[in-house]
Design goal:
- The protein is mainly alpha-helical and 121 residues long.
- The chain has one domain.
- 84% of the residues lie in helices and 0% in strands.
- The chain has 4 helices and no strands.
- The chain is elongated, with a radius of gyration of 25 Å.
Length: 121
């Protein structure tokens, strides 16, 4: 069982994460697709203290002797999902950057050719 002070701290941290993410999305500083996992993390942090008995039962069912360790496990899994999502975005952006760089090179080459033709006339 999690003591009341820790419950309150988890609840407030979750609430802070939710408010921060919502404000960042509203100000267009964070895209919605990246905000989803952060919102889920904030929701878990907010709701976990309210349902600590359920967490205790799940922990014991999974063979975890120290129930708060389940929260740590969930946090690690959540952060791994966020890292995976960001890795996918980086890979996509890297591919896009390569294509755009190649297109820019071709356009510059065409522009130089047109400028040389215009000077020659």
């Amino acid at each position: 069982m999690i003591d009341p002070r820790s419950r309150l701290l988890l609840f407030l941290m979750g609430l802070a994460v939710l408010i921060l993410v919502i404000n960042l999305v509203r100000k267009r500083q964070l895209q919605e697709r990246y905000a989803l996992l952060w919102l889920l993390a904030g929701l878990v942090l907010t709701l976990a203290p309210l349902f600590s008995n359920v967490l205790d039962r799940i922990a014991y069912a999974l063979g975890i002797d120290y129930p708060p360790a389940l929260l740590l496990l969930l946090a690690i899994i959540g952060l791994m999902l966020i890292i995976f999502q960001l890795s996918l975005a980086i890979s996509h952006n890297s591919d896009q950057l390569k294509v755009l760089s190649q297109e820019l090179g071709l356009l510059r080459q065409q522009l130089d050719k047109l400028q040389r033709e215009q000077v020659a006339q």
